[in-house]
Amino acid sequence: MQLTARQIEAIEAVEAHDGDLYAAADSMGISQPSIRKLLSEGRRRGERPRSLAQLARGEAPREDLMLTSFSRRGKDEDGNPFSESWRPANWKKQSVHELARRFVASLSDLPALKKIKGPNRCKSRRGTTNLLKLGDLHVGLLVWAREAGHNWDLRHSESILHAAVSYLMGRAPQAEKLIIFNAGDYFHVDNTRFETEASGHKLDADGRFPRIAETGLRMAIRMIEAGAATHPEVEFISSDANHDPMSNIWMRLALREAFRNNPRVHIDTEPAPFHYRQVGNTAIGFTHGHKCKWRDLPEVMAADVRDIWGATRYRMWKIGHVHHRFVQDLRGCSVEALRVLPPGDAWHVGAGYRSLRDLRLETIDHEYGPLGEDIFPEAMWEGLAV
Predict the structure, then answer these.
(1) C-alpha to C-alpha distance for 248 and 40, rounded to whole angstroms
(2) How far is CA 62 from the centre of its chain?
(3) 5, 73, 142, 363: most buried, per Cβ within 10 A?
(4) Tens of pLDDT along 178-214?
């Protein structure tokens, strides 16, 4: 069956506006749901699924150009029902690669943030580094108090993280550098299905994925800006994790471009599962903790960075994933698991998981190692208006 003139007009309008359905609908004088309906009808009427431009031009389909799968149901000329579906070869791998390529190519057009005014250098203390330890934040998590004991959504994530970072930066000891460690699972969801990629577990999410992504990126920018306003140098390290493997990639790249005019801010974009830093006489390893057993981490550090291991007296790992705090001294190295800010969701509460929540800032002397830490505990935000 052939496309109608109105359907072709809708397809051409979307193509002319680079896929923006709202702009295309305005140009046609119709609503956004109406143009969606025209596009949907066009797919059902077409003999094969094609790109928008191919549908408009009537060209033969190119499966290697398809970025999504399609299906249609109906009745043939004899009235017999039929169902058909198509997927391009290696459809999942190709779509992820293409989307990542387009995103990276678009980053150069993002406006860079203005240079951030830093602290007076005479007020910075040489020979010390502050470490902000951000446990799994799960931006986009939705929790209902009647079901799980607490209310939590995007507003809670943003306001409480901002309060915690502001408090800790205001009390931070003078230091020559701040390392912000995102332990992973920064985003609760990584796709519009609201499922984990590896296991397909259903997740309780607040709102639409674009809103979650926008809020999470804004939160990260504000956190780094707060650090740059109080420290001469800021480094952001983010670990690969199980809840947000793809979002962790694009967020690091977006942050790098956003702060490209701020030489005092460094965004680590390496996709490696383990990150290492030598802070004077202290070696620090960073990872999420969902793959390697935490008891094996000292041996991993000794094998990966033997030069740093041999040059330092103090060695420690910082991990996330487990949502509760423990510090375990092992041979030659300690392992610390980080608490989190958000509460447990319905599944975790039903399974009996309970833990205190907080955000911590640790101070490390380049000669004497870890000196202590400041804490923003759960009790401090219970009275905050969200």
Answers:
(1) 32
(2) 33
(3) 142
(4) 999 999 999 999 988 888 888 888 899 998 999 999 9
